[in-house]
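Quiz preparation item.
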């Protein structure tokens, strides 16, 4: 029986409640497909501060690095908001991301058929969109040096950052995007601002070089401002979007929002020591402990872990199909409830999804 070791970080707020449902779903998958999942549940964020006095410990990091994948929920809450920056829950998140050093952020942008009317765009514009955004995560303008705010001799203050990429950083993220595209509709749109930025010229050159190894994939380039416009005009033209750190950051939030279900989408950081899988939403402290949190994002995040972290494609599909069917049948937690739906709590939503697997 195939065995997999999974680090589990329920974190804070609604994290433990939605993680519980995700693990129940995983156990159903284990039973159906004869796998064994071993869980290492570890602390991060506020709960780690409360227990160990810091947002993550060296032991926790070592544990995560020894497993096959990390399933994360969310961290943060008012209780820890006034701590110094390096002691806050989010510092634990930054530390684990650094230890893992996953350079490829993967954000699938999918419309749940039953949720089309939740988008601010017309249903016919967003119907059936299925995009994967591959964003470079550890370089670009957020990390480039020099950076800072200085006072010039004439008293004027100047703030600056450096947008830089080395060829190998572009090459490795492009390879991730091309390999995703090969398993999908075989189309990549690479995003840049090559009409203005030198770094974008290098980006285009390297992406074109990598393309030679993937002749079955169609490649086109798009300026980031046009891409922002095209995403709301005709999102179904996109299959895989490849972008650097800042452009990918902005476009992925825009793209998630047009699905109408931002709070139900997963994301991943891969390419590093261990794949890390997490929902797009935060710890929702306003509804924590009320048993009304929507577990769907955590559950589809688990599907993403099975597919991209453990190579279990059929198992991932089984979860996603079960979520689609559950939503089609009208089951809704309060955050996505509309008249005519069946209102359920966190556990009942988990039950309904498990029933469909
Ligand atoms: P949030 O995503 O936690 O919540 C925004 C709104 O969406 C809230 O009204 C919340 O109730 C609702 N919501 C979110 N997820 C939901 C779910 N699964 N089911 C039902 N409703 C849901 O963002 P926020 O309010 O800006 O941040 C709250 C806390 O989460 C803060 O401490 C923040 O720092 C933290 N946060 C953590 C992460 C992370 O761990 N990756 C990401 C974002 C925010």
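Solution:
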């Amino acid at each position: 029986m195939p065995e997999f070791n999974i680090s589990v970080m329920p974190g804070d707020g609604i994290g433990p409640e939605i993680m519980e449902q995700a693990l129940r779903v995983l156990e159903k998958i284990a039973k159906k497909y004869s796998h064994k999942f071993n869980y290492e549940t570890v602390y991060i964020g506020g709960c780690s501060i409360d227990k160990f006095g810091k947002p993550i410990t060296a032991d926790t990091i070592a544990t995560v690095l020894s497993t096959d994948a990390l399933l994360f929920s969310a961290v943060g809450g008012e209780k820890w908001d006034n701590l110094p920056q390096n002691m806050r829950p989010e510092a634990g998140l930054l530390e684990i991301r650094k230890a893992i050093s996953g350079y490829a952020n993967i954000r699938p942008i999918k419309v749940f058929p039953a949720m089309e009317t939740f988008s601010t765009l017309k249903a016919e514009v967003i119907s059936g969109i299925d995009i994967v955004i591959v964003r470079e995560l550890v370089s670009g303008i957020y990390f480039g040096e020099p950076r800072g705010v200085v006072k010039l001799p004439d008293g004027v203050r100047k703030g600056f950052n450096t947008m830089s990429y080395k060829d190998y950083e572009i090459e490795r993220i492009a390879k991730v995007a091309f390999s995703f595209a090969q398993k999908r509709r075989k189309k990549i749109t690479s995003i840049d601002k090559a009409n203005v930025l030198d770094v974008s010229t290098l980006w285009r050159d390297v992406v074109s070089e990598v393309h030679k190894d993937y002749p079955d994939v169609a490649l086109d380039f798009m300026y980031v401002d046009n891409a922002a416009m095209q995403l709301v005009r005709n999102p179904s033209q996109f299959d895989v979007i490849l972008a650097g750190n800042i452009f990918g950051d902005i476009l992925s939030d825009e793209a998630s929002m047009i699905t109408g279900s931002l709070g139900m989408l997963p994301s991943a950081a891969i390419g590093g020591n261990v794949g890390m899988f997490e929902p797009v939403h935060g710890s929702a402290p306003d509804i924590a402990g009320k048993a009304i949190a929507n577990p769907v994002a955590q559950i589809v995040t688990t599907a993403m872990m099975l597919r991209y972290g453990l190579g279990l494609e059929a198992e991932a599909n089984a979860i996603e199909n079960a979520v689609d069917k559950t939503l089609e049948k009208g089951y809704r937690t309060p955050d996505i409830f509309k008249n005519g739906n069946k209102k359920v709590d966190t556990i009942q939503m988990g039950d309904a999804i498990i029933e469909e697997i």
